[in-house]
Design a protein that fits this description.
Layout lengths: L2 E5 L3 E2 L5 E8 L6 E8 L6 E6 L5 E3 L7 E6 L4 E6 L8 E9 L11 E2 L3 E5 L2
Parallel strand pairs: 2-11
Antiparallel strand pairs: 1-3, 3-8, 4-5, 4-9, 5-6, 7-8, 9-10, 9-11
Length: 122
């Protein structure tokens, strides 16, 4: 059984930083693309960053230069370092996994965590 569990969401002031974590189990090592997504109330789910099977990261334009995706394979962990947070970054953040490819369409991902809430407010 595949499980993904996010943590690290919190209330933070504009300009602040957070690091989200996603611990996964049940994924065959080296077979999956891992990604971070978010969904704000009333908005579609938005792709933020992915890391492919070779460890190569890709970012959405909205977070390029502010967010950094990384992983520690030995810990089955995926991270999202978020810097210079803005009010528009307020959303539920999810990690997801898809076998082999890194599609941009969130609906394509097979496995999802339950989400962790990030609120950016003064």
């Amino acid at each position: 059984e595949v499980q993904l569990v996010e943590s690290g969401g919190n209330l933070v002031q504009p300009g602040g930083s957070l690091r989200l974590s996603c611990v996964h189990s049940g994924l065959i090592s080296g077979r999956y693309c891992l990604g971070w997504f978010r969904q704000a109330p009333g908005k579609d789910r938005e792709g933020l960053a992915t890391i492919n099977r070779n460890g190569y990261p890709t970012y959405a334009a909205s977070v390029q230069g502010r967010f950094t995706i990384s992983q520690v394979n030995a810990k089955n962990a995926l991270y999202l370092q978020m810097d210079d947070l803005k009010s528009e970054d307020t959303a539920m953040y999810y990690c997801a996994a898809e076998e082999y490819a890194c599609p941009s369409d969130a609906d394509t991902y097979d496995y999802w965590g339950q989400g962790t809430q990030v609120t950016v407010s003064s």
